[in-house]
Each structure stands twice: as C-alpha cells, then as structure tokens.
Amino acid sequence: LSEPPGTGAREVAQFLELLQLEDLGGDVFRAWNPPTTETRFQLSLFGGQVAAHALRAAQLTVAADHGIHSLHGYFLRPGKDGAATELTVDRIRDGRSFTTRTVVARQDGEAIFNLTASFHRDEAGGDFETPIAPDIPLPDELLGEQESRFDRMGVESPFERLDVPGYSFREASDVPRRAMWIRLRTALPDDAALHHCAVTFLSDMGVLGAVRASRGRMGEPAMAASLDHAVWFHRPVRADEWLLYDIHARSTASARGLGIGTMHTVDGTHVVTVAQEGLVRLPD
Amino acid sequence: LSEPPGTGAREVAQFLELLQLEDLGGDVFRAWNPPTTETRFQLSLFGGQVAAHALRAAQLTVAADHGIHSLHGYFLRPGKDGAATELTVDRIRDGRSFTTRTVVARQDGEAIFNLTASFHRDEAGGDFETPIAPDIPLPDELLGEQESRFDRMGVESPFERLDVPGYSFREASDVPRRAMWIRLRTALPDDAALHHCAVTFLSDMGVLGAVRASRGRMGEPAMAASLDHAVWFHRPVRADEWLLYDIHARSTASARGLGIGTMHTVDGTHVVTVAQEGLVRLPD
Prior knowledge:
The structure is a homodimer. The first copy, chain A, contains 5 helices and 15 strands.
C-alpha cells in the first residue's frame, strides 16, 4: 500500500492506457503490462489485469449493442509484468441476442489465462436482486473515520478503497468475509465497455482474503493464487462511483477456497456478482 | 414426470452407458444421446447431459490421481437428442498439482457447449463450509409425507427426488429458492469420476426454477434456457446417496437470472457449489 499524492488523474489515465490494445490482425491483440514493484498483493502479474485485458480483446470483436453479461476464466500459469500479453480471440458464436467469445492470453507462447465471455443485446425482464447487507456503513460514514487507501495492483493506484470495519484486510478476523467500498479515483469516459473492464480488474481483489479469513490465519505467510474467476454483470455499473464489494467464503478444503461476492452501488443496487476459487497453502 | 416401476437398476445402468464415450483418437470422443420424449423440463437435449459428456471426455485425458475440482461451461446453441455429440479436448495445461482441459461439444459441426475443467491432485488444508440451512427436513422425514419423484431428463429416470416443502417446483411460491433431495436410484460403482459426472448432470436441474420463482410467475409458460454453468467440487461426493440441492436466485434483470446452489450430504457436509445464469423470457 502506498498513499500517492494528487488527484489520481494521472493514475486513471495510465489505467485507460493499459486498456489500449494493439490490433495485430486476425483477432489477435497485444497488451502491455508495465513493470511494477512487488507488493504483498502480487508476486507477478495481477490476475485482474490479465482478466481485464482478455475482456477488452473480446469486446473489440463484438458489436457495440451487445454488452458483457458474464465471463468465466481460469488462471493457468503465473504471468509476468514488464512484458506483453498476446490475446487470441475465437468468435465461437455470433447470435442475434447473444454473442460468445473465447480468449486465450499467452506470454512467451504459453497460455497464462483463458476466458469465455458472453454478450447480450439489452432486453427487459426481471427486477429481483440480492439486497445490500444491513451491517454495511456507507462511504460517507467511513470517510469520517478513515482515509481512503490506494491499492497498487500492477498499475499505480487508480483505485481508492474504504475498508468496512470488521471485514478488512488489516484485521486478523476469523469471520470469513471481506467487504470494502472501492472506486476509480477520477472519472472514466461514459463508455460502458471500459467500466466493465475496470470492474473485472478490481474483482480479483479480496476474494482470497475472505478465504484466508475462513481459516483464521490471516496474518501468516501463505502461498495464495487465484484459480478460476467468474463475473456476472446484472445491471449497468460505473467503476468511478463507489461500489461495495462484499465477499463471503463459502468453503475451504483441500487447500482450495471458494468465495462469492456481490457488488452494490451506494443506493444498494446489486450490479455484479463474482465467484472465485483460490489455492491457499498454509504451513502445517 | 413419470413414475416408473421397479428398482431403477435398469435406468442407472442406462445412465452409466450414457457416460461410455467412443474414443475417436486425437483427444476426440463421441457420445450418444438416446431419443427422448419431450417433457416440461426439456425442449431438446438436456444441458446437464451435455455438461456430463464434456466432463467425461476431459476425465478420459487426465491422470487418475487428479480429480475434478471445478468446471465452467457455456451453453452455446440448443442440442438435439437421438444424435451424437462430438467432444474435442484440448490439453491446455498439465501441471504437477493442477491439470486443465478445455472441451468443445459439437453437433453437426456446430459448437453447442464449451467447457473448461480443472483437476487437482489431492492435498490437505481447510475445513470451512457453508452449513446446511436449518429449515431443511431430512429425507427420512420427507419420505413419511411424500413418495420420491422420478425426473426424466434426457435419460429414463435414473434419479429420484424429494421436494422440500415450500421450495418445490409444484408450488407457486414467490420465494426465490428451490430445494430438493436427490440421488441415483441404485448404486454406482466406486469410481469418483462417474459420481462427478452424475452430479454435473443433475446440477443443471432447478436453478431456472429458482430464477422463475424470483419473478413470482412460476405457473406461466416461458422461454427458459441455461446460459452458463459452473460447478465446484469441494469434498468427496457420491451421487447414489441423498444430496440436498439448495438453490437461491441472486438476481434477475434484463431477462437473465443468476442462481447459486449448494449441495450437502445428509450429515450436512457441504460437498458442491453450483452457479448458473439462465435466460427467462416471460410474456409482458
């Protein structure tokens, strides 16, 4: 963690630049991963960055009136920063209502991540949602008690975060839950596709924290790695407005833990659900 | 629904036969889908059958000491019964601890389903689980009140089911939840891989029921189709012993609904988690 000065405008601009892919033709794209200093969140390439790059590549092959509604990916091998990622898109289905893409992300010819992403042309129907948990304070209340924190995850702190007391990374709680409010530090353009990439990026944060908390050993060194990752986009979402990310561990066994999180706007709207399984090896 | 006589031994044997794939060489396999009469659960090929076939194909290319721990798939196009499915496996990663496979299921050359499946060599660590809901009666209690039901889903009733009152298909409830106890009618061999296929098969039941219940319009005709499907296998599971499948809708919007379910043994052990999004179009 670092507390960079300024408004964050430079960091958000760098984040937007990160999402600029080079089109190599034939549905192959190249992304650049700037070199980073290691942090405790990251031994190598941040998973959310690879996932956001893969989603971005898929979006670039899909008609603008089809928006992402779900994605499922697997982290296959550790990636590295200071290096390019090559993203190969397969147009597995082009339908009238739904469009599906698979993407393989490679470094040095080896697959590091694979993704299937599904896009839906907007239609009406349904108004049921998971309510925001009643024990969650709003960002304005938390800002009276804490300053927002800046996460460095591959890129320089484009996000600011408010920890929900009792469910934060800094507490050695054994409640199997992590909850935080998070947003980009300055505005993104009004392009839904970019907001979806930013939400995908940040959705790789916190799930393994909830899993580790379920084992009551948050403070100890451990080998932890995301295995798979799924995101469902239920309703329009902006990454530059506060989002509650409320994550519960559901199971830990065989060194694997599954966490499921929901994201909500300040007015409580349930905009996104995330599921991730991770490998967490703790010393005996 | 039908209530076939006898012990179910013939139906379970037919189910095992369904999982026998023909090896065409080069990691391509062929599955046969027997013709079925249409039921209200099914307009065409049952999704769980395609998913089980894809998992089976992946298993046949993986060392026996690596067991499935998660799978993520997308239903791309409707399949048909009375026809073969061709399953092409890609050995995307062979690791010491983890092995990953992608599978594309095709009929008449068109992709109908794609799957990524991840296998893990058994290791120790973790003992947290989602508890069984306190309002769930045990199978023995339900058997005093109802007879088990037999679901025909592509194959002839290898499963028997007990509905949990209040959360069943037969009630026009608007509680966004479906809960049932389900098992194969007779024993399967002691081969964990076959039990995983059977659990995958049955995991495609009930989720869209929970989604429809969240819209309070269970009784009406609707167009409903599974879009994606994810299963996490947390602990050893047998498909021939009662499993509670407890499914909650989490969101419905834009004609899409997400349900998340957990499976538990009679002693409450949390063995499996399932997430599925479906398209549910109801008339205005």
